[in-house]
TrEMBL record:
It holds the Pfam family Glyco_hydro_17. One of its GO terms (cellular component) is extracellular region. Belongs to the glycosyl hydrolase 17 family. The lineage of its organism: Eukaryota, Viridiplantae, Streptophyta, Embryophyta, Tracheophyta. It comes from Panicum miliaceum. It is an enzyme of class 3 (hydrolase). This is glucan endo-1,3-beta-D-glucosidase. SUPFAM superfamilies: (Trans)glycosidases (SSF51445). It catalyses: Hydrolysis of (1->3)-beta-D-glucosidic linkages in (1->3)-beta-D-glucans. Residues 1-28 form the signal peptide.
Length: 463
């Protein structure tokens, strides 16, 4: 007997929200952004990049500096922009309010309101730089820039000021309930969090399950990092069972913020991604894993589930990155995070293209597209594998397993294989009907033969 035959927490009430998300998935999503790195010598012209962005579900772009060409190319669109202040500019901005006014006049005021600038990220990873004087100047620079924006009037009134941090600010993150900031930067963070709370600006953080996998390259860790079926990890403190690393990392940050007294501040994911290539010592860097991570993350955001400690709304997330950056130093992975090639073709299909088409961006040769049909259990998959897949699928937001409960239309035959096949197909259909949505670690397969029988109807078929 499959676990689905027993009592299961109802999820069907969430289905309308999920379906609404799927309907709107082809248009811009207010919580999906992308990083635009420019450490490259082969980037397309700003107008072509703007057209590409407008053809996707991406509604936000984060720049590491101020690219006037791209900002102007996005004028009149629904795509907002995060601009960055260089770390080297922070001391002067902190020391002189007039310097802050000049920076704002040169880098924000010429572009608004034609282009929406949502956030100015003051510095990048400053608190983890090891430069104590730079870290001390960070908050005064943020304060001076905000004062300059207030003085500038309506044009900059809606711009918020924050800074971007890595997970290196955390002294403890596992399990999530023990999340705490490093004591050596706690004084600076306390002041910054107070500023963010007062001004309504977000705490910006870079969680990378990719790096977590590098430190623990086991198959179950990979599945946990890629949002794939896994046994989950129970937080002994909160008793919450986590099924993916992304949620665990964010909830660790949330726990640390609550400990600091600022649990009311919103979290924004300033960077997260997975490389398509890597060196011999970088396990897991592949197109398939990058596709799995980003497409499953996007589906997770669209579900509206949030995280266990921040339920009910997606966390605003900027994917890293729009293009590969061929001039970046370091290992191969550093140059291989692009969602798109610089010829505007997809590196892989993460489900971000709009229904209107790619308007200058097209799937790369050989990239799979949405498949239709049905997803069922593969011949040869063991009952243990299928039971794990069954439990995983039915636990996902938007997957209704009511039909395989006692008395349901698909309860008979009451076997693990039959129940798993139904649940797998439900998840496949809800997640976007791409081939990788029917993988389940090779225990499932696509079929064009309708598996429905009697009163038991499997959702699916042609597109």
């Amino acid at each position: 007997m499959g676990a689905a035959a027993g009592k299961r927490k109802p999820v069907s009430s969430l289905l309308p929200i999920w379906l609404l998300c799927l309907v709107c998935a082809s248009s811009a999503q207010p919580y999906i952004g992308v990083n635009y790195g420019e450490v490259a010598d082969n980037l397309p012209p700003p107008e072509e990049t703007a057209r590409l962005l407008k053809s996707t579900a991406i509604s936000k772009v984060r720049l590491y500096g101020v690219d006037a060409g791209l900002i102007r190319a996005l004028a009149g669109s629904n795509i907002s922009v995060v601009v960055g202040v260089a770390n080297g500019d922070i001391p002067s901005l902190a020391a002189d309010p007039a310097a802050a006014s000049r920076w704002l006049a040169a880098n924000v005021l010429p572009f608004v309101p034609a282009t929406a600038i949502s956030v100015v990220a003051v510095g990048n990873e400053v608190l983890e730089s090891g430069d104590a004087s730079l870290a001390a100047a960070l908050l005064p620079a943020m304060q001076n820039l905000r004062a300059a924006a207030a003085a500038a009037g309506d044009g900059a009134a809606g711009v918020r000021f924050s800074t971007v941090n890595t997970m290196g600010v955390m002294a403890q993150s596992d399990p999530p309930s023990t999340g705490a900031f490093h004591p050596d930067i706690a004084p600076q963070l306390q002041g910054i969090l107070g500023f963010l709370s007062k001004t309504g600006a977000p705490f910006m953080i870079n969680p990378y399950p990719w790096f977590a996998y590098q430190s623990d390259p086991r198959p179950d860790t990979l599945a946990f990092c890629l949002f794939q079926p896994n046994a989950g990890r129970v937080d002994a403190g909160s008793k919450i069972k986590y099924t993916n690393m992304f949620d665990a990392q964010l909830d660790a940050v949330k726990s640390a913020m609550v400990r600091a007294g600022y649990g009311n501040v919103d979290i924004v994911v300033a960077e997260t991604g997975w490389p398509t290539r890597g060196d011999a010592g970088e396990p897991g860097a592949s197109v398939e894993n990058a596709r799995a991570y980003v497409s499953n993350l996007v589906a997770h955001l669209r579900s509206g589930a949030g995280t266990p400690l921040m339920p009910g709304k997606p966390v605003e997330t900027y994917l890293f990155a729009l293009y590969d950056e061929d001039l970046k130093p370091g290992p191969t992975s550093e140059r291989s995070f692009g969602l798109y090639h610089t010829d505007l073709s997809m590196a892989y299909d993460a489900g971000l293209a709009s229904a209107a088409g790619a308007a200058g961006g097209a799937p790369a040769a050989g990239q799979p597209r949405a498949s239709g049909g049905w997803c069922v259990a593969r011949n040869g998959a063991s009952d243990a594998e299928l039971q794990a897949d069954l439990d995983y699928a039915c636990a996902q937001v938007g997957v209704d397993c009511g039909a395989i409960q006692p008395g349901g239309a698909c309860f008979e035959p009451n076997t693990v294989r039959a129940h798993a096949a139904y649940a797998m197909n439900q998840l496949y259909q809800a997640a976007g009907r791409h081939p990788w949505n029917c993988d389940f670690r090779a225990s499932a397969t696509l079929t064009s033969d309708n598996p429905s029988y009697g009163a038991c109807v499997y959702t699916g078929g042609g597109q």
